[in-house]
Amino acid sequence: xxxFPPMPSFHGPNRTTKxxxxxxxxxxxxxxxxxxxxxxxxxxxxxxxxxQALTAAERTDAxxxxxxxxxxxxxxxxxxxxxxxxxxLAVEDAVQGxxxxxxxxxxxxxxxxxxxxxxxxxxxxSTSEIVxxxxxxxxxxxxxxxxxxxxxxxxxxNVRHELEEQPEQLKYGPTAVLHAVADHIVDTYVDVTExxxxxxxxxxxxxxxxxxxxxIGSIYQLKREVVELRRAVAPLAxxxxxxxxxxxxxxxxxxxxxxxxxxxxxxxxxxxxxYFDEALSGLVNAALAKISVQQxxxxxxxxxxxxMAAVPTMIAGVYxxxxxxxxxxxxxxxxxxxxxxxxVLCAALFRSFRRNGWL
Length: 359
Known about the structure:
359 residues; alpha+beta; Beta Polymerase, domain 2; Methane Monooxygenase Hydroxylase, Chain G, domain 1; 2 domains; 10 helices; 53% helix; 14% strand; rod-shaped
């Protein structure tokens, strides 16, 4: 009889395990949203890899490359960094995301981090997110501008198209891209603060409406979102101030003038957010006072009804002590008389409480 090899065991120490599949690296091109070469403010025709784009720009007198990336991983970002000689610390920040707005200089390269915000439609009593945040990093050098976007909002495609229609602006080089991105993000700050201001107005109207039942939790939720908005907007003041006033940075004078306008808008938005914070603190106090007044009203009603119930309880308790010599105890009409006395006393108390506003 032929012999067969033993069947593999699926139990015990000899159980086979699956080897995890190696992760296939995603090509760098998948993270590139757009890559263009610009000479004298005009985009050059053709499709380029990052290295080809940089080579084409270096063949001209003042050409530069603008590459847009979306959520690149570490390997993809390192490939871009190798082409444009980006500093490893800045590359690490660009990969991780969730950075505080800041401006750093590495030789001739500027690294600007901006927080993005997006308003989410919601109900006034909703506990969902009201403001979503992300970030955009901008690298600028003598021959390149690299933008890195994290998040699904605040797209830069419209910024690129609008800037390509203004060749006189693009002639200033990569810092023109830095200004356009910063201006676009600050404009979204303005739109979001207007929407949040509308929410606060509706919340204020609801709080001061007598019959409304707005919960204080909704106010706290909106206040938390305002705090998150402030964390995104307020720190940007320092990088913008450096770009405007620090003449040692490689930023043309004309771009500084445009950035000064961006800084003014950012300061205006910061003032509005501070006002929102104060207004919501006042609404919290008003809501707490309203709750306290309602609780006092409820306690007065409860006390009034308890007093009315105490009168018949007292009389019934007295006549339930089983003494022989008690007034009206042996009269035929005693029981109805006691009931009438209870009703009259309760009616008198009800009228008194109603007159004093307790009921």
